[in-house]
Amino acid sequence: MTTQAEKAQTLARLHAAPEILRVVNVWDVVSAKAVAALPETRAIATAGHSIAATFGYEDGENIPLETMLDMVGRIVQAVGDLPVSADLDAGYGNAGETARRAIGVGVVGANVEDRLRPLDESVAAVKAIIAAGAAEGVPFALNARTDALIRGGDRPLEESIADAIARGRAYLDAGADVVFVPGRVDAETARRLVEGIGERKVSVIGVPGALRAAEYEALGVARISYGPLPQRVALTALQDLAADLYADGVIPSTTRELN
User: How many CA atoms, within 13 angstroms, populate the side-chain half-sphere of residue 244?
Assistant: First the structure.
């Protein structure tokens, strides 16, 4: 049985490896098992937006922390030795304590977003998360998220990129493993982020219109995840199937028994 500390070390090695870490976000036990069953899966990441939607909550810490962590813990138990990184939103008002509780259900890494709070507050949150991991004996692999691109408003892209780099460097100095910069990151932006933050230190999201994972890998990006998009794809397939069945269709013969 792989220990929790060993899982955390594995996740850190995956972030630092020359190959980009591809994580397909999950939201419940059955989605986690379906993804974990694939031989290509190296780690599991939860999607906070998707878990909230599963329980009927809007995104943004509207789901009670206890409910979210209960689901994350069930996912951890379902995927065995695979390391699990959890989406902890903005830390639920106490990033260190939230990280400690996540570690308590088996998590070894997380995304925690800054929501463009003052830099000193955001750095303090990163330090608190890393300290919580150290206190629990888990070298926590924090994917520190900066919202510099997606919450930049009307400011020029140049300013948002510079802000992302400044925040990213500060988060790494405070102990973060990698820096998550969500948004539609084109090749030039990715190149500048990697140049400013570090090789294999930038994490991105694969949204429609983004680059392919291999293209980000060639630019030095460490990790790509997909947030709520996998759940949206699954729900689109479900809704399309329902419409077809209402139109007197049949269940496709290619359907696999994944539940």
Answer: 10
% of residues, the chain, pLDDT over 90: 100
Buried b (16+ CB within 10 A) or exposed e, 237-253: eeeeeeeeeeeeeeeee
Q: Is residue 200 part of a domain?
A: yes
Give bridge partners of residue 112 from the DSSP assignment: 144
**Which of helix, strand or coil describes residue 206?**
coil
Structure confidence by residue, pLDDT tens digits, 86-103: 999 999 999 999 999 999
Half-sphere exposure of 197 (CA within 13 A, CB side): 35
Phi, psi of 155 (to 5 degrees): -70, 155
3-class SS shares of the chain: helix, strand, coil, % to 5: 45, 10, 40
In a domain, 184, yes or no: yes
- CATH code of the domain containing 115: 3.20.20.60
Residue 65 lies inside a defined structural domain of this protein: yes
Choose among 82, 45, 87: nearest CA to 68: 87
Q: Is residue 243 domain-resident?
A: no
Tokens 């998590």, residue located: 107
- What is the tally of structural domains in the chain? 1
Q: Is the pLDDT of residue 209 over 90?
A: yes
pLDDT exceeds 90 at position 253: yes
With cut-offs at 50, 70 and 90, classify the pLDDT of residue 1: confident
- 180-197 average pLDDT score: 98
**Would you tell me how many other CB atoms lie within 10 Å of the CB of residue 76?**
24
Range of the domain at 209: 4-228
Q: How far apart are CA 27 and CA 34, in angstroms?
A: 11
Burial class (CB in 10 A: 0-12, 13-18, 19+), 56: exposed
pLDDT (0 to 100) of residue 251: 97
